[in-house]
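thread: overnight batch results

M.L. [08:02]
morning all. the overnight job finished for the chain we discussed friday. pasting input first so we're all looking at the same thing
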Amino acid sequence: MSMAAASIRYYTDRERIAYQKISGMDEVLSARPAERNAVNAQYPDAVFAIMIHDEMVCGISEVRDIAQKAHSAILNGEKIGNIRYRYSRELDQYFANHTWDD
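M.L. [08:03]
and the structure it wrote out:
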């Protein structure tokens, strides 16, 4: 296995382990379309973690950096409430600074 493949495997495994510890993750990922809104409302921490995972490839570098910090915090086992607070504050600050950008 190449070094790059080994690194990808390591981080994928870390993420899988961390995300499995989040309450409702299995339920959110396996919800049928008809149930999705109700399940998402019941497990907001799992929905937040999935959103963070998706935002790590955002085309806006500053937003991507904020998401990557949140993702690292999830992998390190920090409380989701603290991560969400910090993420929201940093994202609000980003938008306050860039609202009128062209």
